[in-house]
Amino acid sequence: MAIKQTSKIEFTVGLDENKIPEAINWTADDGNIANEEAKALMVSVWDTKTKDTLRMDLWTKDMPMDEMKQFFHQTLVSMANTFERATGDDKMSATMRDFCDYFAEKLELKK
Fold this sequence. Notes:
By secondary structure, the chain is of the alpha+beta class.
């Protein structure tokens, strides 16, 4: 299959003197997103050669704890949905969503 188009997503991270993130901005031309502020990001990349996941998890110093908890919860829910679309395994996806409900309950997150 020949590549007919490419798309670029770019993250810019502003660091303090100790290399701790102070600002995160991102741009995605295909999504009409230009230099938008973010407080946290999680990126996973599958390395097919090593059969391993490479990860980058960053958050700014001023990311509020309540928002971090909500960010994790929403990320877990999104992962369950993506897992179902990618594998068709509705039983495991439902199990993952059950954990997401438990996670939200224990952290006292509002739905």
